[in-house]
Structure formats: structure tokens, C-alpha cells
Design brief:
Two copies of one chain form a homodimer.
Chain A (H helix, E strand, L loop, with lengths): L29 H13 L5 E8 L9 E2 L3 H8 L6 H9 L5 H8 L6 E5 L4 E2 L6 E6 H5 L2 H24 L5 E3 L7 H13 L4 E2 L2 H7 L9 H6 L3 H12 L4 E3 L5 H12 L5 E4 L4 H14 L6 E4 L5 H6 L7 E4 L1 H4 L9 E9 L5 E3 L15 E6 L5 E8 L2 H5 L8 E3 L1 E6 L2 E2 L5 H18 L16 E5 L3
Helix pairs in contact in A: 2-6, 3-4, 6-7, 7-8, 7-16, 10-11, 11-12
Pathway (chains A, B): Cofactor biosynthesis; NAD(+) biosynthesis; nicotinate D-ribonucleotide from nicotinate: step 1/1
Function (chains A, B): Catalyzes the first step in the biosynthesis of NAD from nicotinic acid, the ATP-dependent synthesis of beta-nicotinate D-ribonucleotide from nicotinate and 5-phospho-D-ribose 1-phosphate.
Pfam families (chains A, B): NAPRTase_N
Chain lengths: 462, 462
């Protein structure tokens, strides 16, 4: 592949990213705005509130989840602005009244957000995000917060099972075509958080500095008069280090043609169909016999974590994963909710609140969280810390076996930029690697089981 | 709700939509561009090609699928441009060489696209889209075409089962928070294609002219000192026609409080938890006893098509559907593929091509399709028409029982704008209503079954 500069007349300004920043403000359920209108009218909109994001359960059989999307959320916050066009729409449709439009015109989130670092593992009841501010400023973010965290965490949670099953072999994300075009970008990012080594998605490469990868499609072979001329063309254009797709016609002949075209320096061959464990074995023998001992084998074809695990003993060098990872491998969303857990009362003090429901139980009040580790540094409990608000706010672990989980993300409206952009993704990937390594030995088993550690509540006293 | 104009100094120009048009060109797998480079170098990039989109199977047990996303695809085509920023990224990363960058800089799709009208039902093997042009111009669209059609069709296919199960009662889409923020907009649009009556998503309302709807969240009640003051505030702000959420504390007391706050003109109450068939019955009796005989009952709480069907006999007026519809109710993607089926050979004639595979069988050559109807106008077969290229190109049904399915979408690069924007969604919804009504009686049953009609191949002769 050549890395020539673009022709000079097209050379862009360095600051131009090509991703114009659209307002994210209307990625919002209508009722957030109508509730705001009612609360502005009766004065409760100014009450100080704490909203909390958590999930009541993991998908059936899953042992842990992975927080992802935090960086994207912080990026989206900066474009959560009601501009002329947004206000005109809301006015034209009669969604809210003039007083509310005026509030929205000046809307900036001036509150505070803390939560689990992106990449951190979570469990049922983990308070993964805490959003604090007036009711008005915090309620408006509900839909956007949940959309981002539910999607990205679902993908990262599935992806982590795959990188776990791959025991060190690279997993490559190739699922863009099986999900919405913008979800595809976010999904590629989420798989990177969970340890994927590359993505086919160019926009994800551009936006988040991810490594992009690619082989070739059957269409490229079919375009040519025969497989040999297709392979020759690809090697001429991309060099012998390229990956040739050898299963368009006959795999054994495809491998012969591939080595003939690229020589024994051929980078890799890809298998995209058939009985992969068997085929990989055959192809490895054939490549070795042809002298292409360094040529790698990439497999794809509807792989999920179970198929990856089943290939552990096969001579496979990397896994191309599509549909299953971008759709959360059976769990396309996380079921995270955004609940009001405390709000200022008429006396000006913060009071815990919770819906009274037999089936949807929520614990009121602000919470913190910590992971309790045993002497070897393995996680044994998810500790959720509640109690009087000032006690929870000021809480820090008093014993070395508790690793606190909340980190500051937004302080009085100012975003902590460590979590955003390409550096944010890299930081999240490190966080995930450490967090997963800390889980007890059975945590990465694929068979259905209980959460890897139990969630326990602890209540501080005054 | 008030519909006052925005304050004058914010009045936007009428032409400003607030949705700046970002380039969609990098929503593309890297290998499309590297294949292009190799094909440009050996001249095959200029070969005339026909790519076809189809799915090999429906999700397990499903009886039909619904084509959706066509309008979005045509809209995305117009921004599929490699601008300075895109070219700079590709150059900087060494994705392709200078000749390819130059080709991309001038890229416009000048080809022709035909396919099933948006909203049309489809079956395994239905050739839902046909993209024709040079290899270069058609191969670049693969990822974008599939992302859009796979996502939107998955949602519309699930949504159609729900509107079918609701037998005339309105279904309302409220799932934005359970899917990626941009998927949420596309999902709202896809549910409208399948007959949903409204969406909570404001951005979808703005972009596609959809009716937006909303009630209130538990947080609004919890924000207030008690339920009565919350309801009073909502009614003051939004009028008695609003929908009050009555299950934050005790449903029976909630209903009493609601009618007390709004009077017997109360628009609706919403139930979001508990045993809905039983609760709806109780609440209906209570509302009637209080004189609120016109007050409607909206139910939500993890509804899917089966839960909707189970509520058929309950006194429910509309269904709020979230997670299950935006995630395709167990089938979050459609499995549609984009396959090269014919390409110009060295002699300049179009030749059918297909991958030789036991497991992934594709029929080579350009295809058309028609639905065969019985005397009462009910569909009995999906007829896929293949054969010599000129015969298929010129084919029109010669009997009245065949309804042709392909419509022109793009002609020599010119988009047929009937399918785009808000009018496109309305047209698609009409198309779907007609297409579903034409299916045989068992087609909308929710139980697992075979495709509602068999797909048969017919081969024309010279």
C-alpha cells in the first residue's frame, strides 16, 4: 500500500476533520421536553437532582458487562445545543411553549457527571453513571445518555467475550454492513475498547484513530476472468503482504494460485466459508508444503465467541468477526436505565426518591461503588455504597481491598477530555484489559452462569 | 401544547434544516477501496457490473420480511462524496494510492439502481435491489447499501408483526434509548413504514415529518413532593388532553389523582409495569366509574408482538413499544448480502458469475421479480426471473396474475426523489399496507412458520 500525499490542490487544512458537528439535541424523546415545560412552569425544574444509570440484570447467562460509550457521550454533550433550526422545529410542531424554547436556546449542561471509567466491567446494579444538576439540565440528557451507553456497552460486552475466547489471537471487526451505518462506527470503537485489533470501517479509523484492516471480497475474484488474474492484480496493487481470499471456487486450488501469485511471502489467506477447523488445518499443511510457512490464516464466516472458542486448537492466526459482534451476540442492547434517585425537597435538602414497584426495584439515593479484591488482587464483590447524601458524597474506601470505581467525567459542565477522542479509546482499552484480568478465573467462561461477582449493598451511617 | 412562534431574533431561514450533510463516503469497508485500487490498475474497474442484494433466509420462524431504508439509501447517495477531508485521511493512512485518490475525488455514482419499492414484503431469495454500473462505482456502495437495508429492514420486519398483532390499535415507537442515537432515528422511520402511528424521537420527527408523541416519566412524578402536584403541573402545562403516568406509587390512587387533576376530559393514562392485561381491565373500570369514559389507556413495559397479541382482549387503546422493535425483536439484522451476479467479460458482453460454494448458493445473472396472485388477488408465489441478460432486462409479465416488483430508483445517477424525504416514508407506508394485505391469510401469524409464499425461479429463454 502506498502512502503518497494527496495532490496539493486538495490538501486540507489540518484542523478540518470532515465530520461537521451536528446538533445532538433532538436525539431526545419528546417527553423530556414536555416534562421540562411543566417543571419550568411550576418551579421544580430548578430542583437539584441526581440521576443514576444502571442495569437491573445482565443478558441471560452473561458473567459481566463492559461499560462503553462514555467518551462518545462526552463528545456528544458538546453538541447538545438547541440552535435556530432545532428551536424552529420545536416551535413549528408546538412541542413546547415559548418559555421552554427560551430556556432551551441557552441550554448548556453545567452539572457534574461521574461514573465507571470506560472499559470497566460492570454487574447488575452497578451505578455506572451519575448525572447531577438541576432537573432541567439533567432530564434532557436521558435519551442521549442511554442510547450511547446501551448500544456501545452491548457491543463491548459481546466483543470482550470474543477477545477472551481468542486467547491472544487478534480479533478484527468486519460487521459494518450488518448494522446501521453510524452504529457501525460506534460498534468498531466499542470493539476496540474490548481489545479488538482492527476494524474494516474507515470512518471509525478516521474518527477514533483505529487501525483499519481489510482483505478482498468474492466480487473481486468474480470480476476477473479467473482467480489467477484476480490474485495477480491484487498482489501487484497491494504487495505480497496482502490477504488473498481463497474460497471463491476451490480452496486447494485457491491456495496454490495465491502462493503462485504472491510467492512464499504472501501475507495471509482468508477462509470465509465451509468447515473452518478442518479447512484451516488443510490449508496450513498446504501452505507449509508450498514453503509459505509465514503466511497467516484469517477466518471469517458468521463467527461468534463460541465459534472462536471452537477454533482454539486450529491453526488460525486471526478472526474476522461481523454480525455477531455488532449486534451484541444475542444481546443488542444493555437495558440500562436512567433513574432519578435523589432530588432537592421543599426544604432545600437532597432527598432519596424511588418508584414504588414490586417488579422494578430501585434503591433511592446517591451511590458510589467499589470493587472488593482478595489478597491476590482478584475481584470478589461489587460493593454499592449508599446512605446519607453527604456521607456518600465524601466517601472514600477506608480499606486497601476496595478499589473505588467512580471517576470524574464532567465537572460543573467542563468535560474531562482524557476520555474523549482517540486517546480516550486507548485509555478505555487499557482500562478494560486491567478490569477483566482482575475478575475471578471463571469470569470469561462462555457457558451460561451467574455474574462473576455478587453485587452487595453497603449503607453508610451519619 | 402551545404552538407559539420562536422569538424573532432566533427565527431561522426556512431553508435551514439543521441537519448538515456529512459525507457518507467513509461508511465503507477498507477493502472496497483496496479492491478498487487493484481493479483500476488492471483495467477491470471499468467493467460493467450488476450487483444484487438479497437474503438467503428469513430469521427463524418468520413468514415475511419488509424492505426498508431505500429512501435513506437514496438520500445517503447524494453525500457519498470523497471531499478533501476524506481524501486526506485515506492518503495519510496509506489506504490507497494516488491514482485511486484521484478517482475518488471525482466519484459520483452514474449507474442505475432498481429494486423492490420501500415497504414491499420480501422472501428468501427476493432480489430486493439491483445496482448496475462499472465495478468501480458499484463496489464502493456495498457497505453503505447493506448497512442501511439490513438495519432498517430488520426493524420494519419486526414492526410489521407488531402492527399486525395490534389489529388496528395504534403502535407508538419509544425505543430510542435502547439503540444507537442515529439508529434510533432510522428505526423510528422504519416503524413508520410498517404502520406505527408515532414516535417519541424528535429528530425523526424533524427529519422525516413523523408524528411525535410522548407521555411523562416516573422521574417527573418523583421530582414533585407528591403525585398530585406532579399531575397538576403536567395538566397545567400540557392541558387535560395529556397522558398521565399512573404507576409510580399505587395505580388505583394514581388513577384517582389523575382524574382529580385533569377532570373527566383526561386524554389518557399510561401503565408501564405490572400485569398489564389485568391492570388495564381494573383501570378501565375505575376510569369509567369516575366518569372518565373517554380517557384512553396506553400501555408500555417491554412489549413485543407476542405481548401485544396477548393484550388483544384487554381494554387497551395504544401500545408503546421500545426495546423489541428497535432491536428487530430477536433479529437485529437481516442478513442481506450484496453479490456480484454479472459482469462484462473480455468480449464486452455481460456474463453471469457466482461463487462456487456448497453452503452459500447464489444464482448468477441479472434477475427481476414478480409476485404471483391468485384470482382473489392473494399472493401465492414469489417469482424470481433469470435467464439471458437481454431477456431479463426487457422482461415484463405477460400474464395479469404477475405483479412486477422492481421499480426504478436511480437512473444513470439521477435519484428518483419520490422515494426520499417525508413523502418517501408516506409512500413506503402505503406500499407496505397494500403488500401485507395481499399476503395469504396465515402470513401475519406470530407462531414460527415457513415463508408465507414460496420463492420459485423461472428462467427465460432467448
Amino acid at each position: 500500500m502506498s502512502a503518497e500525499p494527496p495532490s496539493p490542490h486538495r490538501s486540507p487544512a489540518a484542523s478540518h476533520t470532515g465530520t461537521e458537528r451536528r446538533s445532538t439535541a433532538l436525539h431526545t424523546d419528546r417527553y423530556e421536553l414536555t416534562m421540562l415545560q411543566a417543571a419550568l412552569a411550576d418551579g421544580t425544574a430548578q430542583r437539584h437532582c441526581v440521576f443514576e444509570v444502571f442495569t437491573r440484570r445482565l443478558p441471560p447467562g452473561r458473567r459481566y458487562g463492559v461499560v462503553a460509550g462514555t467518551g462518545r457521550l462526552l463528545e456528544a454533550l458538546s453538541t447538545f445545543r438547541f440552535g435556530d433550526a432545532e428551536l424552529a422545529y420545536l416551535s413549528r410542531e408546538g412541542v413546547v411553549d415559548r418559555a421552554t424554547l427560551e430556556y432551551l436556546a441557552d441550554y448548556r449542561f453545567h452539572g457534574t457527571i461521574s461514573g465507571y471509567a470506560e472499559g470497566e466491567c460492570f454487574f447488575p446494579g452497578s451505578p455506572v453513571l451519575s448525572v447531577e444538576g438541576t432537573f432541567a439540565e439533567a432530564v434532557l440528557l436521558e435519551t442521549l445518555v442511554l442510547s450511547i451507553l446501551n448500544h456501545d456497552s452491548a457491543v463491548a460486552s459481546a466483543a470482550s467475550r470474543m477477545t477472551g475466547a481468542a486467547i491472544g489471537r487478534p480479533c478484527l471487526e468486519m460487521g459494518s454492513r450488518r448494522t446501521h451505518e453510524e452504529s457501525a462506527v460506534a460498534a468498531a470503537r466499542a470493539t476496540a475498547v474490548a481489545g479488538f485489533a482492527g476494524t474494516s470501517n474507515l470512518e471509525a479509523g478516521r474518527r477514533y484513530g483505529l487501525r483499519t484492516i481489510g482483505t478482498a471480497a468474492h466480487a473481486f475474484t468474480l470480476l476477473h476472468d479467473d482467480e489467477r488474474s484476480a490474485f495477480a492484480a491484487q498482489v501487484r496493487a497491494l504487495g505480497p503482504g496482502t490477504t488473498l481470499l481463497v474460497d471463491t471456487y476451490d480452496v486447494a486450488q485457491g491456495v496454490r494460485n495465491a502462493v503462485e501469485a504472491a510467492g512464499t511471502d504472501l501475507g495471509a489467506v482468508r477462509l470465509d466459508s465451509g468447515d473452518l477447523p478442518f479447512l484451516a488445518q488443510e490449508v496450513r499443511h498446504q501452505l507449509d508444503a508450498l514453503g509459505a510457512t509465514g503466511t497467516r490464516i484469517v477466518v471469517s464466516s458468521d463467527l461468534d465467541e463460541h465459534a472462536i472458542a471452537a477454533l482454539a486448537a486450529a491453526p488460525v492466526d486471526s478472526y474476522g468477526v461481523g454480525t455477531s459482534v455488532v449486534t451484541g451476540s444475542g444481546a443488542p442492547t444493555c437495558g440500562m436505565v436512567y433513574k432519578l434517585v435523589a432530588r432537592e425537597g421543599p426544604d432545600g435538602t437532597l432527598q432519596p426518591v424511588a418508584k414504588a414497584s414490586a417488579t422494578k426495584k430501585s434503591l433511592g439515593g446517591r451511590k458510589q461503588a467499589a470493587r472488593r479484591l482478595d489478597e491476590s488482587g482478584r475481584a470478589i464483590e461489587e460493593v454499592v455504597v449508599g446512605g446519607p447524601d453527604h456521607a456518600v458524597t465524601g466517601w472514600t474506601p477506608d480499606t486497601a481491598d476496595l478499589r473505588p470505581l467512580h471517576v470524574p467525567l464532567v465537572n460543573d459542565g467542563a468535560v474531562d477530555t482524557r476520555w474523549t477522542g482517540a486517546p480516550g479509546v486507548a485509555l478505555a482499552a487499557q482500562t478494560h484489559e486491567r478490569s477483566r484480568a482482575e475478575l475471578p478465573p471463571g469470569a470469561t467462561r462462555l457457558s451460561a452462569g451467574d455474574p462473576a461477582v455478587p453485587t452487595v449493598q453497603t449503607t453508610l451511617t451519619d
